[in-house]
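Sample log: Leucine-rich repeat domain superfamily, F-box-like domain superfamily.
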Amino acid sequence: MDLISQLPESIVHRILSFLVPLHTPPADFVRVSVLSKTWFHLTASYPHLDFTIRNFTHVSRESFFKYIEYTTSRFCHQNLTAYTLRLITDLRESAELDIVNRCLELLLQNGVYDLVIGVANSSESPFASTNYRLPNILLSISVLDSLDIGHCELPSSFMLDTVMFKSLRPHK
């Protein structure tokens, strides 16, 4: 067994944050996960989730959305809170919308500290004329500190509920 695998999980996650920062191609993260069973487990519990479609230029759209489902499932199975969730994509099909809704709902139920979301509807999508509406569960996340949104609508009850964000950054 390697010495790093014997460190506490929080320290290994900190090391991973330097090795695999946000915006790193997922292939680099996968390379780290194959080092051992311990590292595979640690990458599954890594609390910085980045689902940015432009980082997946080497794979199909279908593979990107399967990656979102798989990673979300592994992460949520451990009942962890995400420090950062970055979801930047466009939607072309209703199946993609279903995956985004399902995975976002699961991750938000577990809790997210920093949410960066930009979900644009492609001009060829059947719902191109509307913005993505964030789920109502967003308002009940007690640990959410920062919300950065683009091409999204806030839940309709947003103004009625008390929101405790430290930062809200809307973008067009």
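Observation: The chain has two domains: 1-45, 47-171.
Observation: The domain at 1-45 is CATH 1.20.1280 (Monooxygenase).
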